[in-house]
Amino acid sequence: MFIEQAYRGKHDFWLYLVGSLIVALAATIGQIPLTIAIFLDRGLDVVGMSQTELMQSLDPNLLIFLLLLSFAVGFIGLKLAVKYLHQISLMKITTTRKKIDWGRILLGFGLIAVFSSVSILIDYQSNPENYVWNYKPMPFLILCLIAIVMVPIQTSLEEYIFRGYLMQGFGMGTRHEYFSIGLIATLLISLILFGANYLYDLDFGENALIALVSLIIFVGIHMFLQARKVYDKSSYIKFNNSFQFKFTPLIITSLIFGLLHLANPEVGKLGYTILFFYIGTGLFLGIITLMDEGMELALGFHAGNNLVGIILVTANWTAFQSESLLKDVAEPSIGFDVFLPLLIVYPIFYIIMAKMYKWNNWKEKLFGKIKAPLETRTPN
């Protein structure tokens, strides 16, 4: 079972929190070359510049390379965390199979690459006024070389973090005595911060203060209720046990994956509705990982999606700017079409994958209880 692979190494939940910090620190270090490049180009003018202005200050190919470089450094951080914190091989958070199935990676890649390419072609033929032909031989060749090497690194790191490392990590976390309380506190604090930022433009210090005060209040209420015996120990244990199922890490990682896209310029242009697509895509990738007992399909799918997007078409309001073949110059808008992949395309992909790999026992694989393998049921 995929989540239970974590039992084969050190799997205390706090280790996953430390490991996540290591990956974040490594990725931040990987951003130093980009920061230096922007500073050398703009000097002190960078102060007060918007994110969009900063991203447009460099050559598109150089920008793409430096942006993706941070993911490569982040990958080093992940490998160090897995090896030294958890004392487990990277293979154990990749798949339950003895080796990586490259056929599955190619299938995931092919499904979304073909679908995306055909969709772009149809839209280009139907609405040519929405696109500008942007082909420049040498910049495009350089883009292809960068994208083919670096984009799979970027998408693989995201998959390893969300569908591998954190999927298993939150799975182990559900076994912790205070997991349910911690989860509820995190959700409430996140809602408070989201609401505060929606009403007021808060800086980092103000957000940190609100989070700290909210946490203190929540812990205080929890301790007060415990002291007054509003709920007994057995009821709390029963409530906590209700989280010890595979859908818990599936939902949590999908939400985090989707909400991290809040920083993308697409959200500013299209509104929060686009988050349904991001969260739904995270859920899709998580489901195919659990059903297939490995990340290969998700690895291929994510790489195919991003690679086609960067090479074929970009817009000046998307997260990645590139020397793509086409530039989308239409005024961005969003409607029911954001739900079409979630309601039609992804279910078709489920059917294809399920038929090819003979998936069964959906209820157990997606909603079953997380249990330690028999051979590892010893105190951690």
TrEMBL record:
InterPro entries: Rce1/LyrA-like_dom
Protein name: CPBP family intramembrane glutamic endopeptidase
Membrane-crossing segments per the record: 13-40, 60-82, 102-122, 138-157, 178-196, 208-225, 245-264, 270-290, 297-318, 338-357
GO molecular function terms attached to this record: hydrolase activity
This enzyme's EC code(s): 3.4.-.-
Domain CAAX prenyl protease 2/Lysostaphin resistance protein A-like residue range list: 141-216, 247-308
EC top class, as a word: hydrolase
Keywords: Hydrolase, Membrane, Transmembrane, Transmembrane helix
Keyword Transmembrane applies: yes
Record carries keyword Ribonucleoprotein: no
